[in-house]
Amino acid sequence: MHPLDNVIWQALTTRQAQFAEALGGARRFFRDVTLLSAFDDAAENGYGALASLVGADGTTAVFLDKPYEARTEWDFVAGAPLLQMVCKNGTRVRPSEAIEIIELGLPDSSDMLDITTLTKPGPFGPRTHELGNYVGIRDDGKLVAMAGERLKVPGYTEVSAVCTHPEHVGKGYAAVLMMEIMRRIRERRETPFLHVRQDNTRAVALYERLGFKTRKLTHFAVLRRAKQNS
Asked: 85-215, what's its fold?
C-alpha cells in the first residue's frame, strides 16, 4: 500500500499514533485535535467498529475511495469529492519584506479557531495545532492568514488549514505561508501533499501554480451516529 492510500488510517497507526483512539479495526484522532477518523481497509465491519468508537450521537469525518453509501447506523451530514495532491518539485515564492510570518501555537489557539470557523478549510479543533508547524500573518494584531501541517505518514506531511480572512484575499498570503510550511517539510526530507475540494477551483489553481499535481480523487464525508429507536 502506498503511504498516501487510506492516509488517515496510516497516520494514526504510524507517525501520529500518539493522537489515536482505537477500537477494533477503527481509529480516530482525539476529539479536541480533529474530527478525522478511519478504519482498516481489510476490516470486515469498519463502519461498525467506527460507530462503536465514536459512540452515541458522535460525529466524525472520513476520507473514502468512493462516495459514501447510506448506512443505518450513520446520518450523512456533509461531503464532497476531494483531490489529493502531491508536490515533488514546487515553485519558489519570495515573500515581500513587508510580510512578517509568525509562529502559531497554543497562545494563538482561539484566533486559529476563529479564522478556521470563518473560512472553513476543513476540520480544525482546539488542539489541531499540536499536529505540526503552524504559521500565520497578523494585520494590526488580527490573525488574517495561516497554514500548517496535519496528517503525517512515512515520507510525507500534509499541508493543511490554508486560509485567509475574506478581507485580505488576493494579497498572496496563502502562497507565502504554504511555501514556508513546504520548506520545513522538505528540510526533513519529506514530500508535501494536501487535500482540497474538487470544486474549489481557486484553491486548486493556486496549488497547481505552486507545483502540486493531483494524485487521486477521493471523497470526504462528515458522519453522525444515527439515533437509535428505543
From this structure: Aminopeptidase (3.40.630)
